[in-house]
Write a structure and sequence with these properties.
dioxygenase, binds fe (ii) ion, single chain, binds 2-oxoglutaric acid, oxidoreductase activity, acting on paired donors, with incorporation or reduction of molecular oxygen, seven-stranded antiparallel beta sheet, alpha+beta, iron, Jelly Rolls, 211 residues, six-stranded mixed beta sheet, globular, 17 strands
Amino acid sequence: MAILNVNKTRNIEFLSRAGLFLTEDFLNQDLHAEILAEARLQSKERAKISRNSMSLIDDDFRKTSIVHISESKALLIKAELLSLKPTLESCFNVKLKGCQPPQILSYEVGDFFGIHIDNAGKAPDAADFLKERRVSVVIFLNDQVETPQANSYMGGTLTFYKLIKNDPRWDAFGFPLMGKANLLVAFPSDVLHEVKTVTYGERFTMVTWFV
Ligand SMILES: O=C(O)CCC(=O)C(=O)O
Ligand SMILES: [Fe+2]
């Protein structure tokens, strides 16, 4: 699919206008550094996808790992994320109960996540935890760069689809968001998105879903 080529700064502006919520420097600096350090050290397991009420690994659709983080860090992270609830409620005009346990995701070279929505849409046999997702949140933990640099990654662009409603001419266009350490993006969980293949380094994100 075609990807619109827009510069990094303007893209934040553009995606905000298209209805996404973006905020820079979301986590306090110490917590951000601690999470990233922990993400690089801890063990990981391959992330699964849900299909026909089954949870399975499908390398053709998603190659991502979930990092095991300490219980204490998970609690701190959740508290930070919950502080965002009122803002997300007014931004997306929904009443939210809370958020699902945050996950730290790692994408090594060759990893990606194909085009999907986070809340299973109208699939009748989907698990309840998927159906109840209202607002998805992604926090980038390290920088996406254009030439190799330590602690950063290349490729792995988070790309959104069908942001321009009621005009099918735009349906094939992907709207990219370059990763930037501590940038947070929130979007309705029925927005189509994907993570392109990582081509250098290791990409870390933290994700949760408000319900
Ligand atoms: O890692 C990302 O940027 C997004 C991950 C994602 O789309 C998901 O976990 O549903
Ligand atoms: Fe997603």
